[in-house]
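Aim 2 progress update. The chain analyzed this quarter is reproduced below.
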Amino acid sequence: MPPLSRLGKQIAEVTAALQRIGARYALIGGLALASHRVIRATQDVDLLTDGENADSIEAELLRLGYQRLHRSADAGNYSRGDERVDLLYAHRPIARRLLAGANELKTSLGDLRVISTEGLIGFKLQGLVNDPRRTQDLEDIRALLKANRNGLDLMEVREYFQLFNRDSLLDELLKEIS
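Predicted structure tokens:
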């Protein structure tokens, strides 16, 4: 395997710290797209982690030299120089199920636990619903649907769209890619 990039080293360091404290994690966000046949440039590390381990996770990130930018019951944002780690804390049953079901994949950034395509679509949809100005999330959803249309569990995807009352958006997107 070729040497890891700076981003790969950052991810390896953060995930090793999470493993040391027994915190489960899964890659989400822009970097997870590549594991699902969608390439997009991004430099921040987005992880879904155990909600009950948020204090221990923060302590590990601070030990690694990260500074807290924001922390709530649902999320934490940390930076170290120009490196950034954004965390979503899995509390709700769906998020906990997605975290438990994440698969370990060989990626260009090393072996990583990565959220399912369906789960990634769900989180992208949540981001779009929370902030409609996040048009990149809509483009990512469109690209994920197109690249993975033959292997998706569309019933699961539809559940996420129903959860956010966006059934018509899913129908529109599926019509676009057919």
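The two ends are 37 Å apart (CA to CA). DSSP finds eight helices and seven strands in the chain. These observations will guide the mutagenesis experiments scheduled for the next reporting period.
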